[in-house]
Specification:
Structural class: alpha/beta
CATH architecture: 2-Layer Sandwich
CATH class: Alpha Beta
Number of domains: 1
Shape: globular
CATH topology: Nucleotidyltransferase, domain 5
Order of helices and strands: EEHEHHEEHHH
Helix content: 25-40%
Strand content: 15-25%
Length: 191
């Protein structure tokens, strides 16, 4: 069972990212503030959920959250500042886009670049422990997967509708055959 809060503050925002280990596409991040009585029986770390349950949870989170926002950092930004800093940039953008200002941030993982004037706590496997981080995990993943399906329609040879830009055999074979696209992360080892 996921915990409702780490800090006990009513406007605690959970943060998580998706797409950090991909060869192509942006890295996405989400920030979510949930009401104290939020309940979703199957909410969990998005990687532990089926695609159908992620979509159901996404709809409920978007409908019931006090505030939520999704943001991204582009492959060019990833190449310029590295994937860790691009992940933090996307998280900062998500926090800045929240319609309700948070009082405290809880972040999945063990590192984070502090957001100005806000306390935070990094929590390893936080997406499997806290509702708001799990909700951010679901939003980041589903919005990123949606973007990769859109890109797959323009670049069908890479299989992004299935692999979401991750380094599968089919994806690497397509890079060998067709070369990289403008959406590939050129600072990554593509082959």
């Amino acid at each position: 069972m996921l915990l409702a809060s780490y800090s006990g503050r009513p406007r605690e925002a959970g943060l998580d990212e998706a797409g950090r280990g991909c060869l192509a596409g942006p890295v996405f991040a989400a920030a979510v503030i949930l009401p104290p009585d939020f309940a979703c029986a199957y909410l969990n770390d998005s990687k532990q959920m089926t695609a159908r349950r992620r979509e159901l949870a996404r709809a409920q989170i978007c409908r019931e959250a006090v505030a939520w926002a999704v943001a991204e950092a582009s492959p060019d930004e990833i190449a310029s500042i590295n994937i860790a800093n691009a992940s933090y940039l996307a998280m900062h953008r998500a926090v800045a886009a929240l319609a309700v200002a948070p009082e405290f941030l809880i972040v999945d993982g063990n590192r984070f670049k502090p957001y100005p004037s806000l306390e935070h706590c990094c929590l390893i496997q936080g997406d499997a422990r806290y509702q708001s981080i799990a909700a951010a995990s679901v939003l980041a993943k589903t919005f990123r997967d949606e973007r990769m399906r859109e890109l797959a329609a323009k670049f069908p040879e890479y299989g992004w509708e299935q692999n979401a830009g991750y380094p599968t055999g089919r994806h690497r074979d397509a890079i060998r055959t067709h070369g990289p696209t403008p959406h590939h992360r050129m600072g990554f080892r593509l082959l």
